[in-house]
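dumping this here before i forget
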Amino acid sequence: MLNKEDIILLFLEDPYKLADEIWNKNVPKSDEIRTLICELGNPQSAYRYALCVDNSPRSDTRKASCKDPERAFFYAQNVDKSPRSDTRKASCRDPESAYWYARNVDKSPHPDTRQAVQNNLHLKERYKQWENSYE
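structure:
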């Protein structure tokens, strides 16, 4: 198991290696470690901590995950397992994340996700087709 100092060094070396260590459950469950991971500001690590270590949603890991649109989508889908306005808003900063959020989290068209795909012609058309078949 990694300790606080190992986590800091690993994050400084390569944030994705830290995310892999969390995925492999080599990071202990602790308020201090969770806070550190969230404060380091790596959305991938915060998401994986919530998914693999906490096995439940928390406001601190959600907030850190929402710094990245794709992580916000994955957090909503795999940790919250339901839509929330904060994860939707974060996901909508990227058209592709917004599209998948609508399909897999909202499971229905939503004005925010529809608006988020408008500047991507391919996703706009896919969203429109899906929306028409949804009705």
